[in-house]
Amino acid sequence: MKRQSIIAANWKMNGSLSLISEMVSGLNQVQLADNVNVVVCPSFPFLTAFTYAAQDENLQSRIQLGAQNVSEHQSGAYTGEVSTQMLKESGVNYVIIGHSERRSYYNETSTLVAQKVAVALEADLTPIICIGESESERESGQTNQVLSAQLQPVIDEIGIEKFLDVVIAYEPVWAIGTGKTASPEMAQETHQFIREFLAMKQTDVANKVPLLYGGSMNAANCEQLLAQADIDGGLIGGASLKVDEFKVICSTAKGYQ
Ligand code: 13P
Question: For residues 40 and 66, what is the distance between their CA atoms, to the nearest angstrom?
Answer without folding.
Answer: 6
